[in-house]
């Protein structure tokens, strides 16, 4: 197991995948959070759907986000890695299929695809967890939606904090900036539905 982890670290290091994976995690995770926030806000202002319908709709969207993230990232990253490997093989005038760079060209797209797809899926599941809880524990559906909206805002704020850390800017300002994006999204949904 330790050997596999060491090999994985080597492949990630030689391909500089860590920054790419972080970008995919943030971009698609933010998409997942904002999508779920939008759906839940839509349910909240419409007051027309049952908890079962809300859970099914949100779960369907979460799965679609995950599948879209996995497939789109794999296809694009695999193509990019194959092209980089061909260029390196041309420069070195040898086949690198069995070398670390060849293994990286095959494995890194899978890693990136999983990060890209699991990020919005897991975040969406965390946001809709209060809806599941309300199906088990007798909670008023409006309260479950309010809690889900609060969870979405917390996650969106945390993405802002992460971006602040990456860009070496003040974390609170960065978190508030992403929070404003969530608030504007809710406001637009509210105005459109009224």
Descriptive overview:
It is built from six helices and no strands. The chain has 194 residues and is an all-alpha fold. The chain has one domain. The mean pLDDT is 87.
Globular, elongated, flat, extended or rod-shaped: what is the shape?
elongated
* Low-confidence region ranges: none
Number of domains: 1
Order of helices and strands: HHHHHH
**Secondary-structure content class:** mainly alpha
Count the helices. How many?
6
* % residues in beta strands: under 5%
Question: What's the gyration radius in Å?
Answer: 20 Å
**How confident is the prediction overall: mean pLDDT?**
87
Q: Profile the largest sheet.
A: none
Helix content: over 70%
Query: What gap, in angstroms, lies between the N and C termini?
Result: 56 Å
Number of DSSP strands? 0
